[in-house]
Amino acid sequence: MQNLTSTPVRPPTSGEAPPELSLEDRLTAIDAEMTVKLDEAAVAFEVNTAHIPAEIVDLADVVAVPAEPAPHPLPDLYPTPVAALLQRAHHRLITDGWCAGALVDEQGARCLLGVLRKEAGRDHGTVGRGLEVLMDAIRRKFSPEVDSVPSFNDAWASGRIPMRMLGEAAILADARGI
Q1: Mean pLDDT, the chain, as a whole number?
Q2: Residue 124: how many CA atoms within 13 Å on its side-chain side?
Q3: Structure confidence at residue 143 as a pLDDT band (50, 70, 90)
Q4: Would residue 163 count as lying in a domain?
Q5: In a domain, 118, yes or no
Q6: Residue range of the domain that includes 96
Q7: Looking at the 3D structure of the chain, how many domains does it have?
Q8: Assign residue 149 a region: left if phi > 0, alpha if psi is -120 to 50, beta otherwise?
Q9: What average pLDDT does the segment 32-41 reach?
Q10: SS3 104
Q11: Fewest Cβ atoms closer than 10 Å to its Cβ: which of 14, 92, 141, 153?
């Protein structure tokens, strides 16, 4: 870029046309002109608003948010026990969070197996059938070589796919009537 201070500009005489400036020179001149105008506008704003009393506002007084988010109500979609278990497990992962590498982490988030056990309570038979349907859904979507629900769960960095598979497994269990 050319430095404007090193190039002397001589004023045009009465019969001459002004010298032609390059695009960069014109942009530099316009930038300087706009900077001056913005500085003048800032000073005018300060002068025009100096008489208005300013009150400092604390954002805590203005913005109010609930202490805890309201829980999403669980829709009652599936009348069969395994489909209902999978649906409740899906809902719990949405509300409490998903984790990998442990049944339950320090914040209370759960993995696929941990959430099924939590939602089923003492009904171990329903957990087993829920795991079978979940494995079927996983193998249909991904690969027949997936060996277990915990290994599938731990293969992901986020819970988006494992949670989606719980939802698909609930649809599959409902379609099977279990």
Answers
A1: 85
A2: 0
A3: confident
A4: yes
A5: yes
A6: 81-176
A7: 1
A8: alpha
A9: 96
A10: strand
A11: 14
